Amino acid sequence: MPALDDSVQFVKGIGPKKAKLFEKLHIRTLRDALETYPRDYEDRTVLTRIADLGAEDKYAIRAVVGTEPKVSRIRKGLTLAKCTIFDESGSLPVTWFNAPYVVAQLRVGQEYVFYGRVQGWGRGRQLVSPQAEKVAPDADAPGRIVPVYPLTAGLHQRDLVHVTDAALAAVPGDWPDPLPAVLRAKYRLLDAADALAAIHRPQSTDEVAAARRRMVFEELFLLCCGLQQLKERRKADTGIVFSDAGLSDYLAALPFSPTGAQRRAIDEIAADCASGRPMNRLVQGDVGSGKTVVAAALCALAAQNGWQAAFMAPTEILASQHAETLAPLLDKLGISCTLLTGSMTAAQKRSALAAIETGAAQVVVGTHALIQQGVTFHRLGAVVADEQHRFGVAQRAALSAKGETPHVLVMSATPIPRTLALILYGDLDVSVLDEVPPGRSPVKTYAVGESMRKRITAFIDKQVEAGGQVYVVCPLVEEGETDLKSAEQHAKDLQAALPHRRIAVLHGRMKNADKEQVMHDFAAGQYDILVATTVIEVGVDVPNANLMVVEDADRFGLSQLHQLRGRVGRGARQSYCVFFGADKGQTARERLKILCRTGDGFEVARADLAQRGPGDFFGRRQHGLPALHVADLASDLALMQHAREEAEAILQHDPTLDGYPELRERVQRMFEERDDEAFN
Ligand code: ADP
Ligand code: MG
Q: Which neighbouring-strand residues pair with 126?
């Protein structure tokens, strides 16, 4: 019998050819198979009588085969089999497509549990391609919970079942459990071996739930332990020491006085940088809370202390915009600011790269390519990553691996519940900007339908007349979507309606240099209206813009709409936000109304989280954490809280987890996996 670390090809009936297919599912060994959980379960414990079948759905039906299956070849590669089954309440036609295995085992007069989809109505009603399991003559509860595994072409459920059977059989009696027994008892969690058995071969849906709960706890606990250790380990590193002597000059150079929250964050940063430990700090603040000058304070500190700073933005547009904000500010302090983007000419790039290498470039602004593609710094002392959710744990770790341990500041406008923040940013200290700069009035927000089109166009005109500027955002149009207008088309229509206004278009297919030019010109007031796809979503700052119109707003997530709204309300002028799409049904209208009601990003995020699947909110690539296989960051919040507390407690008395070898190893493995995945 093969052992856990043997290749699946040694399982009887698998062999090298199928093993290749298993590799596509990332299953090489039996252990991998054990860790590949079913993606779903079919509950065949609930049997339905033929007469009681309801709406089209999947059903488990205990019935007898009444007629010999008639097999016909429709055409090459498609065979059809038909028969009739019956129980004491009635009979039902069954059709199989290409299912010779299932059909071959059927015997007339024998009873089976059929599981499959019932389609059609009345006389046309039939059971389509069901699985069939023979019922022993005296069995009274023949139904089962059947696991459904992820598949790839050429593999069948029975192959996965076969291999996981072998894997379960190979699990030794003394299977190590990474969760300490006290925790299992405290939270009433199944032990590891039982949970594995239950997740692969559950006897009931309750068992599935119990197994899942245990797995989720384990996964979150491992994650928290790893993040916590990362944080502790960094504390042991020696950091570059920045004196804060230049801070008052920086504050004096600002064109406004900082808010209390900005001041606190800047002080926290200065204290971190003077502590002798590398800083790893997150600045979290709603859109418009003024994160840029907080980050710029770090850049100034670095330069004043003879070190370079890298300021990284998620897009080139934002990078060049940040450079435009920072350059004049830093210039007052005699600090040079250099932009490096992919759209610069070769000669420009060469000279920027040279300045970075000699150290003449003190503050360098660019995209994440600054760090990832081996730009050589003379003396890199500080790194700023704007919009943190695209700058994950792995990227942060890669920084320290560059030999130096620069101070790292990440900035995020994604408002998330505190519990979640503690996990996602578990390895960071957090400053919160919970105050908006003074003199801002809330953005007046309206959800409207097509019937308001003319009035909104007139409203756009009126805002421009009064000296404001307007964004119009259109969703990305995918092929085949005919009900939506592209940004280009929309700009044309708007130009026809407002021939005297200067309208520019910005969309993803334009060259970066062209995008930057348009953005620059809009910021400089050379256009009245900017019609754009969501490329402007993150961070664009044009304080004179005071109206945001979003077309087909029902196509966007609430948090995304909140970010878009954050593009206005940045200056003294009363700002407005108009969402089209309120006529696209009740759900759409109610969603948009949430935004009309509140301007608070946290409240919006809560509503968003409640309304959407978590996958939408925290796409895996977005948070940059190790891959989670079972836990669901949005819906497992309660368990997450416990997992984090327990991780903290255990590390407090055993920081290296020496007393928990299995736990230590599993944490290590989880974070190793991450390294391969995070960068692709
Ligand atoms: P965020 O990145 O947090 O969304 P920004 O840093 O882009 O916000 O700042 C938004 C706008 O507010 C900018 O135009 C900025 O100049 C302005 N601003 C920032 N802090 C203050 C302040 N303390 N007083 C007045 N205006 C400010
Ligand atoms: Mg910003």
A: 119
Residue whose CB lies within 8 A of the most ligand 1 atoms, among 251, 291, 292, for a mutation test: 292
Phi and psi (nearest 5°) for 324?
-65, -35
Mapped onto helix, strand or coil, the DSSP state of residue 550 is: strand
**Measured distance CA(617)–CA(425) in Å, rounded:** 16
Which stretches of 70-183 are assigned E, i.e. beta strand?
70-75, 78-87, 90-97, 111-119, 126-134, 145-148
Confidence of residue 388 (pLDDT cuts 50, 70, 90): low
Strand partners, 284: 412, 432
- Transcribe 477-490 into DSSP letters: PPTT--SS--HHHH
Alpha helices in 359-438 (DSSP H): 369-372, 393-400, 418-424
Residues 433 and 346: their CA atoms lie apart, in Å, by 39
Handedness of CA 506, 510, 512, 514 (dihedral sign): negative
Q: Which atom of ligand 1 is nearest to the CA of 286?
A: 3
Q: How confident is the model at residue 476 (pLDDT cuts 50, 70, 90)?
A: confident
Could you tell me the pTM of the whole model? 0.67
How many CB atoms within 10 Å of residue 559? 21
Ligand 1 atom closest to 543 (CA): 14
The pLDDT of residue 372 is 67
Whole-angstrom Cα distance, residue 37 to residue 251? 55
At residue 613, the pLDDT reads 45
Ligand 1 shell residues, CB under 6 Å = 256, 258-259, 262, 285, 287-293, 413, 437, 539, 541, 543, 570
Higher-confidence residue: 527 or 170?
527
The partner residues of 409 in beta bridges, in order of sequence, read 281, 384
Distance 19 CA to ligand 2 centre (A): 49
Sequence-separated contacts (24+) of 488-492 with Cβ below 8 Å: 490/531, 490/551, 491/531
Could you tell me the two tokens for 506?
Answer: 């910005």
- SS in 3 state form for 311-359? EEECCHHHHHHHHHHHHHHHHCCCCCEEEECCCCCHHHHHHHHHHHHHC
- The residue that leads in pLDDT, 614 or 53, is 53
| Contacts (Cβ under 8 Å, ≥6 apart) of 561 | 550, 553, 579, 592, 595
For ligand 1, the distance from its centroid to the CA atom of residue 440, given in whole angstroms, is: 11
β-pair type (145-148, 429-433): unpaired
Q: Tell how far the Cα of 285 is from the centroid of ligand 2, in angstroms.
A: 9
Q: Whose CA is nearest to atom 26 of ligand 1?
A: 437
